[in-house]
Amino acid sequence: MKILIPGGSGQVGTILARAFHASGDDVVVLSRAPAVRPWRVALWDGASSGAWEEEIDGCDAVINLAGRSVNCRYNPANRRDILESRVRSTRIVGEAIARAAHPPRVWLQASTATIYRHRYEAANDERSGILGGGEAGAPSSWQFSIDVACAWEQTFAEAVTGRTRKVALRSAMTLSPDRGGVFDTLLGLVRRGLGGRAGDGRQFMSWIHDEDFTAAVQWLIDREAIAGIVNVASPNPLPNAEFMRLLREAAGVPFGLPARERMLEIGAIFMGTRDRARAEEPSGRSRPSARGRLQVPVCRLAGCRAGPVPPVEGVALAQERHPHRFWLLPPMVVSGRISAARLGICG
Q1: 161 belongs to a structural domain
Q2: Which residues of 139-151 are buried (b: 16+ CB within 10 A; e: fewer)?
Q3: At 324, which CATH number?
Q4: pLDDT digit string (tens) for the chain, length 347 residues
Q5: Rounded to 5, what percent of the chain is helix, strand, coil?
Q6: What's CA 247's distance to the chain center, in Å?
Q7: How do beta strands 165-171 and 106-110 pair?
Q8: Which domain holds residue 306?
Q9: 270: which residues sit within 8 A by CB, 6+ positions away?
Q10: Does some domain include residue 84?
Q11: Which of 6, 68, 124, 145 is the most exposed place for a label (fewest CB within 10 A)?
């Protein structure tokens, strides 16, 4: 299988490229700064057509992850880049697919669970989840994140690709042991004694293990009947305070200094991410992604207390192929623990 990953040079793209390459697939990453990797890397600018389009013609799947990193200050210039890099790259990928003589079978497009509204009373699924925007008292950075997500998905929806199935991935943050990722940052705080709750600690943290993310992507590629919006997250979003407690326990760190909102803002200034820290709800805003239409494999969640649930809406799953895994709705309905051994934090 040939898989094209525009914008695949970041953490999530590397996770996917590594997994598919290890499985023997022909992986091609499109990058603005090609580097030597075990898989092929082709040049593109993320904004215009070019020789890279030849890679789309005849490939089996496109997984578009392109977009400027949000790990930055949300000043006007960066906000513009964050929005335009996502909209432009999605548009040109759609146009290239439409022009291809032999278009891919499926186009998986990155989106984000940040699109959902903050609420504590219920989780958000693909059909009844409430989109964010206009919450009373919310700072502009929260509204900006939602506006970006909506524009991203709208551009994807407007792409006319009659011979290519389209799936929008509303993904939670992907946790992996790779350097520079979200988990690496959180673990660094824990080891420095700074891994306490953020703000009041009530805000939910939706997440997914990197191996479960790649399994979900493979599952979606294989399921011809699945199209549209899909939540991709573990079955157990945790309040920030509980998440950090489990991470401290797994890392063998008995104490973590809690961070009040003002402390978070000061720390974000030194890290150059002040506005992003505000956007990521340190004071208790939460957007748990949850009960969805689909079932995806969720594996290696140590201590997960749940059993199999029956297929829904006629979606048949080959559970017998993976009897050691829990098959759950991508909703967050159970409690679980982080796999310390897999994430490399033991000792």
Answers
A1: yes
A2: eebbebbbbbbee
A3: 3.40.50.720
A4: 999 999 999 999 999 999 999 999 999 999 999 899 999 999 999 999 999 999 999 999 999 999 998 878 888 999 999 999 999 999 999 999 999 999 999 999 999 998 998 888 888 888 888 888 877 777 777 788 899 999 999 999 999 999 999 999 999 999 999 988 889 989 999 999 999 998 889 988 889 999 999 999 999 999 999 999 999 998 778 899 999 999 999 999 999 999 876 555 555 554 554 444 444 433 233 455 543 333 333 333 222 222 222 222 322 222 233 332 322 223 322 223 334 434 444 33
A5: 35, 15, 50
A6: 20
A7: parallel
A8: 2-178+206-235+288-328
A9: none
A10: yes
A11: 68
* Domain tally, the chain: 1
How many CA within 13 A on the CB side of residue 37?
Answer: 23
Q: How far apart are CA 28 and CA 17, in angstroms?
A: 8
Assigned domain for 200 exists: no
Q: Take residue 102 and report the two structure tokens written for it.
A: 């032999």
